[in-house]
Amino acid sequence: TFHSACVRILRRDIEKLGFQQSFTIYDSADSERVVKDILKDFNMDDKAFPPRSVLAAISRAKDAMKSGPAYLQECEKMGDFRLTRIAKLYVEYERRLREANALDFDDLILDTVRLLEEHEDVRSYYQNKFRYVLIDEYQDTNRAQFELVRVLSSKSRSLCVVGDEDQSIYKFRGATIENILQFEETFPGARV
């Protein structure tokens, strides 16, 4: 799976992103606890900002490859009061996870992409290691997963995806059908 491959990559090189190799992976209950603590510390009502809704918004931002500060800047620019408050929670959520040397499930992919994009030596190592990349159910990938695939396959250009645009069922989890619809455009020379 994307997540297990990312964990292996991160365990080897996450120190380049300022984490220790012994990082903890937070599950949804851990993440929800952190958000509840932040809401309490910020004197925000968890009825007005339900922790699961806050985490869903944070997850969508991470799927779109947006860090907390970038998401906050975007929300402030839009002038959306509610989203700006959530973005401030996201900034603090990121800070607390980093302080705890922890990543959530979305961070596994997001930080792997960051690592590969920011560190040429790591990118080169994995591009040589994964000379062939095969993705099944490609219609259900999100932007972060797309970026991971793009970075890993950009050197060898040996990428095979299997998917059916009529079978997309994970939009609620951030899947974007555009990944498969624009595949030939994104990867010129692709054969169908």
Write up this protein.
It is a single chain. 58% of the residues lie in helices and 6% in strands. It has helices at 2-13, 28-41, 51-63, 68-78, 81-99, 105-118, 120-129, 143-153, 178-181, 183-186, and strands at residues 24-26, 102-104, 133-135, 159-161. A two-stranded parallel sheet has the order 1-2. A two-stranded parallel sheet has the order 3-4. The mean pLDDT is 91.
Oligomer classification: single chain
Gap between N and C termini, in Å?
A: 24 Å
User: What's the main sheet like?
Assistant: 2 strands, parallel
Tell the overall outline: globular
Task: Assign a percent range to the helix content.
Answer: 55-70%
SS-based class? mainly alpha
Annotation, overall tally of beta strands = 4
Number of helices: 10
Descriptive terms for the model:
192 residues, mainly alpha, 58% helix
Lay out the secondary structure.
Blueprint (H helix, E strand, L loop, with lengths): L1 H12 L10 E3 L1 H14 L9 H13 L4 H11 L2 H19 L2 E3 H14 L1 H10 L3 E3 L7 H11 L5 E3 L16 H4 L1 H4 L6
Parallel strand pairs: 1-2, 3-4
Helix pairs in contact: 1-6, 2-3, 2-5, 3-5, 4-5, 6-7, 6-8
